[in-house]
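> forwarded from #structure-qc
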């Protein structure tokens, strides 16, 4: 559960949906409260704001658009690392 992993404490009234990333052997499914958004990248930030430690290594860029921070990250590498942690 990513909320537990990142210590996010929210209570959603919405029914979670399954978001499937990648395909075949690299497929990952996560539960989301809201559907994903297609966002045109905004202004790149020169300094990365504080991110959860687990995301820092996989962050490739941080952008701001409409006062929201968006993080571009290597989800394949991230979930591979999480999977390896679960094996040990």
């Amino acid at each position: 559960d990513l909320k537990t992993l990142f210590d996010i404490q929210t209570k959603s009234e919405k029914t979670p949906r399954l978001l499937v990333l990648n395909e075949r052997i690299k497929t990952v499914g996560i539960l989301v409260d809201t559907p994903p958004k297609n966002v045109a990248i905004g202004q790149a930030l020169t300094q990365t704001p504080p991110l959860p430690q687990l995301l820092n290594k996989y962050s490739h860029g941080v952008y701001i658009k409409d006062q929201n921070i968006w993080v571009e990250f290597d989800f394949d590498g991230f979930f591979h690392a999480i999977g390896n942690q679960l094996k040990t």
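QC bot note: The helical segments are 2-5, 53-56, 75-87. The chain has one domain: 2-87.
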